[in-house]
């Protein structure tokens, strides 16, 4: 049988060549204009697009919890009350976005494809450190837009389910039990700087108040339910001090987005469960204000 020519499929030649395991690198070679925030005109766009605000993450011995409020702002206006800012990056990691909402959402979708592409090409998943580094490179590629006021600053967290690696024998050892996998949290700056955080972290306009809250209530012995409560309480405190952060909206039924990542996978808590936690936080505050 004659070998089929590169052009007989109707695809450009670049689509038929092995381009490595990075979908972002492939896109940069074949269709760079499709990458987030490429080809922007000169000038500042800081006041032209909605901005996502506060994201909080906190770890517990078996994983990590990430939560985000639902408000997006544009200057002094509320652009949206029910935007999602926390997403499953893959089965064992989550990413939250703060900054220019449109570009941040596009960056997250590209990151999800990047991780899936790597797994298909290499036949294995990236380590958690590898995922964090890939996201850092993508943020670095957005630096030009950040200098124009369209910055994206994500928060990344997850558990590493790959077997422990022995650098001496170059062999994989027995995998760590799922229930004891530690949660890890990674923060970034607009230049793509990567920093692993210990215990908890927050980004966005309300992050100062959220971290202040977690500093008082979080400890490394907390279980999953306690950490979920601490994250919701931190978002409540951020909303109490920062006008760009939206708190639990009992009238509209809009609750923070809460994701839990363990060795069993990534799960988004349903609104009913988050409402129960938020109601408990509000009740405690009401009781405290009367005492």
Please, could you describe this protein's structure?
- The chain has helices spanning 23-30, 101-122, 128-140, 143-147, 207-217, 224-241, 271-290, and strands at 51-52, 55-60, 63-68, 72-74, 77-80, 86-90, 93-96, 99-100, 155-158, 165-166, 171-172, 184-188, 194-197, 200-203, 257-262, 265-268.
- By secondary structure, it is an alpha+beta fold.
- The chain has one domain (21-29, 50-168, 176-290): Glutamine Phosphoribosylpyrophosphate, subunit 1, domain 1, CATH 3.60.20.10.
- The strands form four sheets. A five-stranded antiparallel β-sheet has the order 14-2-3-15-16, with helices on one face.
- The chain is globular, with a radius of gyration of 21 Å.
- Residues 1-7 and 165-170 have low confidence and may be disordered.
Keywords, separated by commas or semicolons:
single chain, 291 residues, alpha+beta, Glutamine Phosphoribosylpyrophosphate, subunit 1, domain 1, five-stranded antiparallel beta sheet, 33% helix
What's the layout of helices and strands?
Elements: H1 23-30, E1 51-52, E2 55-60, E3 63-68, E4 72-74, E5 77-80, E6 86-90, E7 93-96, E8 99-100, H2 101-122, H3 128-140, H4 143-147, E9 155-158, E10 165-166, E11 171-172, E12 184-188, E13 194-197, E14 200-203, H5 207-217, H6 224-241, E15 257-262, E16 265-268, H7 271-290
Antiparallel strand pairs: 1-4, 1-8, 2-3, 2-14, 3-15, 4-5, 6-7, 7-9, 9-12, 10-11, 12-13, 15-16
Helix pairs in contact: 2-3, 5-6, 6-7
Summarize the structure.
Helix content is 33%, strand content 22%. The protein has one domain (21-29, 50-168, 176-290): Aminohydrolase, N-terminal nucleophile (Ntn) domain (Glutamine Phosphoribosylpyrophosphate, subunit 1, domain 1, 4-Layer Sandwich), CATH 3.60.20.
């Amino acid at each position: 049988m004659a070998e089929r020519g590169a052009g007989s499929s109707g695809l450009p030649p670049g689509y038929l060549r092995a381009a490595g395991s990075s979908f972002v690198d492939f896109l940069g070679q074949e269709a760079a204009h499709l990458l987030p925030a490429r080809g922007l005109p000169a000038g500042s766009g800081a006041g032209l697009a909605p901005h996502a605000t506060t994201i909080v993450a906190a770890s517990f011995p078996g994983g990590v919890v990430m939560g985000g409020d639902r408000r997006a702002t544009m200057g002094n206006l509320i652009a949206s009350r029910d935007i999602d800012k926390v997403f499953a990056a893959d089965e064992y990691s989550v990413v939250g976005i703060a900054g220019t909402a449109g570009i941040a959402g596009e960056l997250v979708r590209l990151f999800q494809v990047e991780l899936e592409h790597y797994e298909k090409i290499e036949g294995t998943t990236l380590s958690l450190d590898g995922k964090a580094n890939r996201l850092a490179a993508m943020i670095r590629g957005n630096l030009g837009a950040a200098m124009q006021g369209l910055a994206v600053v994500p928060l990344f967290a997850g558990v590493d389910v790959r077997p422990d690696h022995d650098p001496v024998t170059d062999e994989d050892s027995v995998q760590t039990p799922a229930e004891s996998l530690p949660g890890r949290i990674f923060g970034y700056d607009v230049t793509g700087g990567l920093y692993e955080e210990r215990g908890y972290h927050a980004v966005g306009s309300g992050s100062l108040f959220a971290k202040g809250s977690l500093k008082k209530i979080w400890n490394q012995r907390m279980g999953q339910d306690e950490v979920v409560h601490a994250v919701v309480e931190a978002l409540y405190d951020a909303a109490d001090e920062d006008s760009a952060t939206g708190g639990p909206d009992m009238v509209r039924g809009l609750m923070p987005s809460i994701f839990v990542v363990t060795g069993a996978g990534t799960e988004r808590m349903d609104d009913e469960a988050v409402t129960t936690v938020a109601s408990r936080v509000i009740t405690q505050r009401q009781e405290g204000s009367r005492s």
